[in-house]
Amino acid sequence: MGVEVRTEGITKSFGRQNIWQNITLTLPPGEVSALLGPSGTGKSVFLKSLIGLLRPEQGAIYIDGTDIMTCSHKELYEIRKLFGVLFQDGALFGSMDLFDNTAFPLREHTKKNESEIRKIVMEKLELVGLLGAENKLPGEISGGMRKRAGLARALVLDPEIILIDEPDSGLDPVRTTYISQLFMDVNAQIDATMLIVTHNINLARTVPDNIGMLFRRNLVMFGPREVLLTSDEPVVKQFLNGRMIGPIGMSEEKDEAQMAQEQALVDAGHHAGGAEEIEGIIPQMKATPGMPERKAVGRRQARVREIMHTLPHDAQVAIQDSLDETDNDDTQQIPVYHDGGYDERHSDRG
Questions:
Q1: What is the pLDDT of residues 247-266, one digit of tens each?
Q2: Of 164, 160, 183, whose CA–CA distance to 64 is shortest?
Q3: In the CATH hierarchy, which fold is given to the domain comprising 5-224?
Q4: Cα–Cα dist 278/271, whole Å
Q5: Per-residue pLDDT tens digits for 157-195
Q6: Residue 14: CB atoms within 10 Å
Q7: Pairing mode, if any, of strands 333-338 and 341-346?
Q8: How many CB atoms lie under 10 A from the CB of residue 315?
Q9: What is the pTM of this model?
């Protein structure tokens, strides 16, 4: 199972510009978490801090119990081996074919022979659906295939933590759904701790077990999907519905007068834009039939049941309905976004 990642009061600035401050959260081991927030809120900076590429000025970052802010360079080198990272553009070497791109970490960081490397690389390429494309160059394949190749490379060292930066960048909605399905399948198979940085509403609503929200240099909320999807926190509700009404503005934040003016327009019948508000909790994407059951679901739901009594009544009702549906649902359903709403398509991919 993946390992726990925990931050305590971390603060990051570039010169006089404060990016975020006092961020405290725990990524539960083996679960898929997502970090949301408007563009420019430091989501990618947070990812780079977790792996030690950027160093916060304050706080602690515990990876499997070790604080990477105070550990030695040798310890940090070993801890980084726990990570696999999927960058926005896949970060593939343009002059190498997909096989050599995927094999690169094994050749750099292990003493495995070429026969062992070939076996591992072909397994990972098969896992991401690229078997048969191993001799192609990155420039010869689509953006979605490059993402999958980047994921294969991130998986070759069998990481216990996978960091994924803006997986929908450059992809259309259909291919974003396919890559999202792939994340669920990978989590089902290796039970890794996963953190996805995104501002994609559909992905945020349907993929992660846990959701966090960065806004105004602070972590607004972090918790199980059921809690965030039923939250009345204005910035969370606005973001997950993609609406103009709320604290998030075009530049950074709005003043009270602008918010009041926009609300008056809505009250008068003006459309606020964004996705259709959904009653209840949208079903979570599941692993493809034939995959192992995702153990993360049971662990998350146990936590939700423990804290449910602390939530507002309406949230409790919606969450209980959602849990009951999950308990009774033994079919594979993938929520698909179209025309401002969702439906559930049964997967026929085995």
A1: 766 444 545 555 555 455 54
A2: 160
A3: Rossmann fold (3.40.50)
A4: 16
A5: 999 999 999 988 888 888 888 889 999 999 999 999 999
A6: 10
A7: antiparallel
A8: 18
A9: 0.83
21-41 pLDDT per residue, tens = 999 999 999 999 999 988 788
Write down the domain spans for the chain. Answer: 5-224, 228-267, 295-346
Three-class SS state of 329: coil
Rounded CA-CA distance 153/98 in Å is 9
At residue 344 the predicted structure's pLDDT band, cuts being 50, 70 and 90, is very low
**Residue 18's Cα: distance from chain center in Å?**
24
Neighbours of 319 (CB within 10 A): 24
Residue with tokens 């259709």: 276
For 55, the 3-state DSSP assignment is coil
DSSP string, 278-313: PSS-PPPP-PPTTSPP-HHHHHHHHHHHHHGGGS-H
Q: Note the helical H segments in the chain.
A: 43-50, 73-80, 98-109, 114-127, 143-155, 173-190, 201-206, 225-229, 234-241, 256-267, 295-307, 313-328
Cα of 317 vs its chain's centroid, Å: 26
d(Cα 36, Cα 201) in Å, to the nearest integer? 9
Q: Give the amino acid at 223.
A: G
